[in-house]
Design a protein that fits this description.
single chain; mainly beta; elongated
């Protein structure tokens, strides 16, 4: 599974897999 981490304007980590399902959003740890 390919995992790519992108950040939104609030610096939350948006993790999207190659499965075309909903995005899982995780808070970025400081």
């Amino acid at each position: 599974m390919i995992i790519e981490c992108k950040y939104d304007e609030k610096y939350n980590c948006i993790v999207a897999s190659n499965n075309k399902h909903r995005l899982d959003i995780f808070e970025k740890f400081d």
